[in-house]
Amino acid sequence: MPGLTREMAARIDAILDAAEQEGRASLYEHEVYGILASLGLAVPRFLFIRDIAELSEETLHGLGQTLIVKVVSPGIPHKQKLGGVRKVAGTDTLYVQYVMARMRDEVLSHFPDAERPDIVGFLVAEYIPHTQALGFEVLIGAREDPAFGPVLTVSKGGDDAEFFATHYDPANLFLPPLEYEEALAFTESMHIRHRFEQIGHPEYLRLIARALAGFSSLALSYSAGTEGARHVLKSFEVNPFAISSDGRFVALDGLAEFAKAPGPEEWNPRVDLANLDAFFRPNGVAVIGVSADLSRYSMARDIAELLHELRPNDLYLVNPHVGTVRFGSRDYLLYPDISALPGRVELAVYAAPALNAPEFLRSLAGSSVRAVILIPGVPSATPYAEFARQLRAAMPPGVRVIGPTAWGSITHQPGGDRGSTRSSLMRNGWR
After folding, report:
1. How does DSSP assign 200-248, residue by residue?
2. Helix (H, G, I), strand (E, B) or coil at 359
3. Residues 175-233: pLDDT tens digits?
4. Of 387, 41, 38, whose CA–CA distance to 208 is shortest?
5. Which residue, of 11, 274, 318, 419, is most buried by count of CB atoms within 10 Å of its CB?
6. Is 406 exposed, middle or buried (0-12, 13-18, 19+ CB in 10 A)?
């Protein structure tokens, strides 16, 4: 897997497999810690227990004098607001057990009896002393975007995080892969480097860069397009990493959502190439909606004029009001509809009112038209989903459509009364 050793991937797969077998699509915080530790990133010393009775002096040994205790529940995303997070002294096992029991009761008291979430256990972790000064907390996340694939996010936190993001370094987005050298170049460009240099700890930038590179490897390895991946990490976030008092860059809080990896046919479906040549090499083009009234602006007329410069020998213009339009030294007849055209047409550019688009598509049944570009957008009084349904229902079999809203920029070059128009038709999507 990209950037991960076989041993790393095996440990991460085991965590995701276990959560999937329990019917979950999210990870508990200690499982996030497990993945981060597999990447070689620092996490608090911790233990997860399912029952308070499991806690003993032996299990607490090595976690430190001060502990953070959290309830673990798939139904409680914001534990702290409900009293599900406590800082306690870890020197007395019975006292820690007492705090756990009180926490459980307090959290459940916020819910009616019939809606009480399951508390599956407790996370007990070492307390990480750190300053909350600006830049000493960093929020790092990875998210699977349906268009771009894995995307990394990085932002700085601290006492005045809102001011810091607004007036200092803003949040940053990266598309993996992000190698360590690239991540280090980024961290060395952050304004917080000046503070780290002042206090004699420029190595903090390297710790942040190492975490970014690790997140990049993780996001790439568990992405929908990665060969061999059994799971996709839909989101994986640490909020925050903190620079501890002893100089570690430690994950404090984490959350993750995952899904079963789609098969190749889902994330890379077979492309339908039928009739695409009619968009690029059509035998005959018709522009629908061309107006002969030169006193009124007509986008269809501009499009037709551009096509006249490119291919005047198989260009046809359509408008039910008929008439003629002159481009250069040539007069074009306006035909009332597609069926009245004297020659074969494979591409139709529809630049008439959007409300009439479904009826126009229905009129193409039995014609030679194989491709349509719908220039207008969605009628203002019609919801998009309803208009899309109307277009699908009206589309004859085998006809490919780009649009609606398939128009792009129009630039008027100086010269003459109106100037020379140049247009770029922008694809809105294949349908």
Report:
1. T-THHHHHHHHHHHHHHHHHHHTSTT-TT-SEEEEEEEEEEEEEBTTS-
2. helix
3. 899 999 999 999 998 888 888 998 999 999 999 999 999 999 999 999 987 888 899 99
4. 41
5. 318
6. buried
